Structure formats: C-alpha cells, structure tokens
Amino acid sequence: MYSAQELVTYIESLAALPSVYYRVREELESSNGSICEVARLIEADPALTTGVLKLVNSAFYGFSRKIENVEHAVLVLGLRQTHELVLAISVSNVFAGIRPQYMDMRRYWIGCMMTALTTRELAHLTCNPAAGRLFIIGLLADTGHLVMYQTVPELAVEAQSAADVGGEPLFEAERRIIGCDSAEVGAALMDNWKLPTNFAEIIGAQITPRLAGKYAVEAGLLHIALAVSKADRYNEPSEQALQCIDPRIWESLGLNSGSFPLIREAVEINLSSCTAMFFPCMA
Fold this sequence. Notes:
Blueprint: H1 4-11, H2 19-29, H3 35-43, H4 46-56, H5 70-77, H6 79-96, H7 105-125, H8 131-140, H9 143-151, H10 153-166, H11 170-177, H12 182-192, H13 197-204, H14 216-233, H15 238-242, H16 247-253, H17 260-278
Helix pairs in contact: 1-9, 1-12, 2-3, 2-6, 3-5, 4-6, 5-6, 6-8, 7-8, 7-14, 7-17, 9-10, 9-12, 10-11, 12-13, 14-16
C-alpha cells in the first residue's frame, strides 16, 4: 500500500515544473515586480515565448488586435493572467514528457481540457472572479491518475477494472488497492510543485467538495466539471451523469442541475481547438 506523497516522490524527477516558471512567478509576486522583467524571463525561453504569443492571439482570449510581442502580452493580460498562462504552458510541456504504458494519453489530454473548460464555464456562470485560475485547476485536477499510471501502473489498472466491471466507485477502489485515491495524489503533487495553497485544497476535495473549507464553492465547481468530463469520456447521457452529483452541490452554487446538458454542449464546441492549442503534441 502506498501513500499519496510516496507516489509523488517516485515521480518527482520526471514531473517537475521548469525553473523559468518559478522565476516568472517570483517576479510576479514581488512587490517590485516589473512587466519588463517578466517579459524578459519569458523571452529567454523560446518555447514559452512561442506558447504565450500563440495562446494570447487565439480565440481562447479573444483579443481584437494581434499582439506582436511578449511585453505587450503581459501588459494586456495583467500579472495574474500571465502567471496562469505561463503555468498552463509549463504544465502542458510536463504532460507531454510523460507517457505511461497503460494510459491513453490522447484521451487523457482531452479529458483534462474538458474538465478545465467546464470549470471555467461554471465559474463564469456563477460570476466567480477566479475563472482563469479555476481553468488551470481543472487542467490539473486529474494529475493524480497520471502519477498512478506512471508509478504503480498494474495497481492503477486493477482499480479501474474494479470500477468498470464491479461498479465500485473508482476512488474507493483506489484506496482499497493502492492505498490512496487520485485526488489525494493530485493534491500532493500540487504541494510538491509549490503551487498556491488553494490548488491542493480544491483538487484534494474534488470528490467531497465540502472538505475544501473556504474553497468549497470552487471544489464544487470542479466536482461538477469532472462529472461532465466523465460523461464525455464514456459517452454517458447527461441524465445518467447527473445521478453522480449530490443535488446539494448544485444548491450551494446557486445553479440548476437542468443546465448540465447546456454546459456540456457549450464546452464541447471549443474542446478540439483548445486541446490542440494546449497539447499540440497530440496532433
């Protein structure tokens, strides 16, 4: 049996965010942070520069005028959104380097993007000002499975089979067979990456949102987003997917469960283009 921290430690050397991300973040969080210095740090990394300019000029952001250079991009985005964009690009690059034997990475990337887009859509519907950050949290929500399939692949397959064949909830099968569930592993990875505290708390509470404490609302949005992603992956009717969501979660968010099919449809429209933008290696 393994703890979440043990699994993350095993994968630590492979799943590490690049140093440029931390340098950019340090500058962004500094009281003396400079747009010029942030731009200089990004421009020192050709892949990051390309990714930032590609994404900031895409429909994902929807700016009316073409942005020609990184400094202009940082100025237009603002420091917080720049941090989120740099993190998203860094994460996608890390994901590209991990290809577990028993994992369909193309399907995994699509699922991550489905969760991320749905979390952002739900944030907009609830007027949550942290839509950008919640998009990144949605993108990272299933990293626990990536770690599991890289470190204990046979046990991960066994747990998935128990869920698929026997109908046991996947998180319960993972706790019984592996010793921890994917949400716990994902939260441990967020701590290992030294991301803002709410990343680990929200991702760790994705199964039971109320456990996120002051972030319970955001964890509730993620919980629903994961149900949408699961429905997309297994081609489940929305009515079936809704049965897995506690009605109290909808109530706590001020949302109507009847909006589930509409949310799902809105996200699916942009799924392919956004997946290709953030994970070009899947093309």
